[in-house]
Design goal:
The chain is α+β, with helices and mostly antiparallel strands and 499 residues long. The protein is built from 13 helices and 21 strands. The strands form seven sheets. It has a five-stranded antiparallel sheet with strand order 3-4-5-7-6, covered by helices on one side. It has a five-stranded antiparallel sheet with strand order 16-13-18-20-19. Strands 8-9-10 form a three-stranded antiparallel sheet.
């Protein structure tokens, strides 16, 4: 750094930049506002306070920074223009200059539930994109979610947090702000994607509440006090629907294995009954992974991550991915058996009934309470939803490659799923992969909690899991089923009609 002080700090020399002024200062880095000489634009440059004293550390930083650079192609990740190490060995990142952060906004004007939902959808999508590429953020918090005139939400600060963790595990809690850190980080457990999910949910709660959940006014509580906080339930907030609070509570579960993935969190937030979520910036589709063909292309189907966990330190290493869904005032999880991963990677089906398709005959049981008039679409149902004339029951649903399959079984035997409605697949989705069908807005509208309540008469569907079973061959029959269950083989008898 030079000998010219700026606010008590010496101004760093960063190649290609001039007129550096302090913009923000944190515990492990300083952000400067500067001008990029080559194009004459204002940028932000983040310079870490520590130095990288070995070539090995510098090489590691550059590798991590390149990974962070790959993330910046996402419409809700801050643009990263360049990285490097100063002559006196301070690593730096040159990024787009934003107008402010949500840390400032929550202190002056806390967000409402709809704006918070929309913010969560965008940042969860950015995290799902990074997790699918094997990159963790590790410092999600309101101060690292920025906004500008052109973009209402971008996630900043990929790279430096990762660097600090690789160099010195003891600085984990310095890097991940304690107020937004999950309990496992206080026992020095290896970071996983679940850490980012917890931090994002704590952030979304904070931007509505004005401060982090459970966190008291003291700035540096003792470790005992912090651990006691995790025994407290996250309280509701005035004017915030219970559905949103339940999603955030699920994301802040003390057990990292019980949290949804970033992609599942995105889908939970999208399914909240607050009206249509926003269209992504520049028309980019919501995604769970980078598209294999290059940058996002508006109008193309959204790519989804593979079934297996995208990061080796994920809390649940099983290759059968958990599916999470919103049910009324509760978040509902369906965990597959620990043996399922053995056949996901195999070329053949698992042991059990065959074939794994829906067209297996089973005795009818009778209409659902809200469908007592028979087939059709009651006016209270969302557009496109239809009642089935008879209840159908299925065994566990399996995802093999891009297909989801389930065996039709008698309802008086043990079964996993019961149908509560059906819909007609849009022509554009015929032949699409399971995840693409299940995440499509028209399908989510049909197979949602509103339809479940109307057709079943269950006003509070806590404990029920909701799923979508696409048609086996959409070129022959485009009907898909909306399924409800309470766990693997947890139902006996026609539960929905016999309640």
């Amino acid at each position: 750094m030079t000998d010219t002080p700026t606010g008590g700090l010496r101004v760093p020399i960063v190649p290609g930049l001039t007129d550096l002024r302090i913009f923000a200062r944190g515990g492990y880095a300083t952000v400067y506002r500067a001008t990029q000489i080559s194009v004459g634009r204002e940028v932000a440059v983040k310079v870490e306070n520590r130095t990288l004293d070995s070539e090995r550390d510098q090489a590691r930083f550059l590798r991590e920074a390149r990974a962070a650079g790959r993330m910046s192609s996402h419409p809700h990740v801050v643009d990263l223009f360049d990285v490097g190490v100063t002559v006196d060995q301070h690593p730096y990142l040159i990024m787009e200059l934003c107008d402010g952060s949500y840390a400032e906004r929550m202190r002056t004007s806390p967000l409402g539930p709809v704006e918070t939902r929309d913010l969560g959808i965008k940042i969860a999508d950015a995290l799902a994109h990074s997790h699918a590429a094997g990159v963790l953020h590790r410092d999600v918090k309101p101060a690292n979610i920025l906004y500008s005139h052109f973009n209402s939400a971008v996630l900043a600060d990929f790279g430096l947090a990762v660097l600090a963790e690789h160099r010195d595990p003891s600085v984990t809690l310095e890097v991940l702000t304690p107020a937004y850190a999950p309990p496992e980080m206080f026992s020095h457990s290896p970071p996983s994607p679940a850490v980012d999910v917890y931090a994002l949910c704590a952030t979304l709660y904070a931007v509505m509440n004005g401060r982090p959940p459970r966190w008291q006014s003291e700035r540096n509580p003792s470790l005992v006090t912090v651990l006691e906080m995790f025994n407290q339930q996250v309280p509701g907030l005035p004017g915030v629907p219970d559905e949103l609070i339940e999603v955030l509570r699920a994301g802040m579960a003390n057990d990292p294995a019980e949290r949804p993935s970033a992609l599942e969190l995105h889908d939970l937030l999208t399914s909240l009954p607050f009206g249509s979520p926003p269209t992504p910036v520049s028309g980019a589709p919501i995604s769970g992974a980078p598209s294999s063909g290059g940058p996002y292309v508006a109008g193309q189907p959204a790519p989804r991550p593979p079934v297996e966990d995208a990061h080796p330190t994920a809390p649940d290493a099983r290759r059968w991915r958990r599916r999470w869904f919103l049910g009324g005032a509760g978040v509902l999880a369906l965990a597959a058996s620990a043996t399922a991963g053995a056949w996901v990677a195999s070329t053949g089906p698992p042991p059990g009934p065959s074939p794994w398709v829906s067209q297996v005959g089973a005795p009818p049981t009778g209409p659902l309470p809200g469908c007592s008039a028979g087939a059709g679409a009651p006016t209270a149902l969302p557009s496109g939803a239809r009642c089935l004339p008879e209840l159908e029951c299925f065994g566990p649903m399996r995802i093999r490659g891009n297909r989801a399959e389930a065996v039709r079984v008698p309802c008086d035997a043990r079964h996993t799923w019961e149908t509560y409605a059906e819909g007609i697949l849009p022509v554009s989705l015929v032949g699409a992969a399971y995840d693409e069908v299940a995440s499509a807005a028209p399908v989510r509208q049909v197979c949602g909690t509103t339809t479940f309540r109307v057709t079943t008469g269950i006003s509070d569907p806590v404990g029920w899991h909701l799923e979508v079973l696409p048609p086996v061959d959409g070129s022959v029959d485009r009907s898909y089923r909306c399924l409800a269950g309470r766990g693997v083989d947890a139902l006996t008898g026609p539960t929905l009609t016999g309640r």
